[in-house]
Prior knowledge:
The protein is α+β, with helices and mostly antiparallel strands. The protein has nine helices and ten strands. Helix content is 44%, strand content 23%.
Amino acid sequence: MKKTYSIGEVSAMLRIGIDAIRFYEKKGLVHPKKDEHSKYRVYTMTNILELLDIIYYRELDMSISDITEIIQSGSKETMKILLNEKKNNALNRIRFEKQLVKKIELIETAYNTIESHHGISIKKFPKTWILAHGNEKDEIMRSQISDFTKEQFVMSCIYSTYHITNNTREDFCITMEQSVMKEFNISWKNCEKLDLGLCIYKVIQLGKEEVPIQEVDEMCLYAKVHGYSYENIIYIHEIPLTAYTDESNYFTEIYLPIKKI
């Protein structure tokens, strides 16, 4: 006579809840029998194997309907198609998680820069690609970034450009560093390269939409004192340490490109 188990014993053995076992029974995926005397459901090793199959498929993030289709159809082709789909989904999740780690590292670098950098210095601007740009942020949001993928949103940066002499904003840019695009094999059609080279550099706390006139004047003076000719435009990289709406923790990197000789 085959050994049988109670639902509690099966639950403890497989470390799944009793409610979950009953749910799988209702879906027709597990088929216990009733004991003739006690009228309680009893489970055989066959039923335990049915549950192990379900646990395996659920670990692959398969839906109940997918599991039902596999079990009821008995089709190797169906199984192969679903496994391939889940594999691709898993690889995409891994890719995105790696990008989140990279984004965290970039934010940590920004924190360290803000905490350690004081005064004006010379810094090489990272090689960057412009993914979208326009005179107004609303314009960019409305007409250019509606097709951005989740990864492009996560890995992109915002720059504003200002004309020094006129003290007027010229452009908003959504950018991504070339090293990031290369690392994650992110492609973008018709993007413009932004390679400023060496720049006069400063990082300050600054509310959004403001033009740091005094800070820019100090950077221009620094350039003159040290014998540098500079372009008539500054690039401001917005760094929200907490949130875009939190101006008390809103910092910016200011880049004043040095003219190439």
